[in-house]
Design a protein that fits this description.
Elements (H helix, E strand, L loop, with lengths): L1 H5 L3 H23 L2 H18 L9 H27 L16 H4 L3 H6 L2 H10 L4 H12 L4 H8 L3 H20 L20
Length: 200
Amino acid sequence: MVERARTGDRAALGQLLQREQGRIYNVCLRMVGSRADAADAAQEAMLKAVGAIDRFEGTSRFGTWLTRIAINESYTLLRKRQRRSMASLDAPAGHKDDDAPRSDPADTEPGPAQRVQQDEQTALALKALHTLEPDHRAILILRDLQGLDYGEIADALDLKRGTVKSRLFRARMALRAALDAPTTTEHPAPAAASSTEAQP
């Protein structure tokens, strides 16, 4: 089916994208923490995959290639969100910036059926996940939530296998620190746990 899609078979490509749609949305959701933003990032990833399918070399699985596009789209959205947040600091006191990121619990909660199954520890882990640096967040999502192996993660994030292992270790340590850190309404857990990581 991948070969057919690469040679211009739109029906085959549509089937591939439909098969991956839910998983890609979940990757984006865990990255950006908002259902609306996740839907936008996933849709943009799908559109870019359509435009780039003829350049897909097939050296990795189609799902891994699409995951890489989705992660990159999530990074782009997070950078835009950060710029909006910084711009909102210049707004007069009392000004409500509708575009500024905000911690809306409804944005990070799963659907009703999943919410019934989700225990308190899972909720705390997901909350801590969103305090991490995006690079750490991405590798934890791909390994611990999506179950990708080291080779697939290396392909998805364009990293060497050794870098995947070391970054995953640091990401897990950062997540543990975030889970262990005391939290208050005035002083949320910092996102600087991974700031000392050397870039590959």
